[in-house]
Design a protein that fits this description.
- The protein is mainly β.
- It has a single domain, classed as Trefoil (Acidic Fibroblast Growth Factor, subunit A) (Trefoil), CATH 2.80.10.50.
- The chain is built from no helices and ten strands.
- It has a four-stranded antiparallel sheet, with no helix packed on it. A two-stranded antiparallel sheet has the order 3-4.
Length: 138
């Protein structure tokens, strides 16, 4: 049985067969990021679709400044420290600290809405500041 297409994702079910087959969910490239180490545990986080780096907008050091993707130029506002692990990050959760401001990547207002703003904010212990890395497929 084939489910209707969901934009950016593909799902398949095996129907009513005796064998169970997994549901396949593919994330589009704009939701996939590479972690490229720079130095001393810091890294650039590069979007697979655009090739641009996760950046603090305008190099701001203020809480509430939005995060954007911007061409990678090696500035401190494009470097992040992940507290969840240092080797294979697959399955690891933790915080992303900005090298330029020492503030954390944060889902603004702890929103769970699609398209919510991602900004930098002071540590508050909330789940809106936890990020989980998984290994990309393909």
């Amino acid at each position: 049985m084939e489910l209707p297409d969901v934009p950016g994702r593909r799902r398949r079910l095996a129907g009513m067969e005796r064998r169970c087959r997994p549901v396949v969910v593919e994330r589009p490239y704009n939701q996939q990021w590479y972690v490229l180490p720079t130095d001393s545990g810091w890294a650039e986080i590069v979007n697979r679709n655009s090739g641009q780096c996760l950046s603090v907008n305008g190099g701001s050091t203020s809480a509430g400044a939005s995060l954007v993707q911007y061409p990678c130029i090696g500035q401190n506002n494009q470097q992040w420290y992940f507290t969840g692990g240092t080797a294979n990050l697959g399955g690891q959760s933790g915080q992303l600290w900005s090298r330029s401001s020492y503030l954390l990547a944060d889902v603004a207002g702890a929103s769970s809405d699609a398209g919510a703003t991602i900004d930098q904010w002071n540590w508050n212990g909330g789940n809106n500041q936890n990020w989980t890395f998984t290994n990309a497929i393909g």
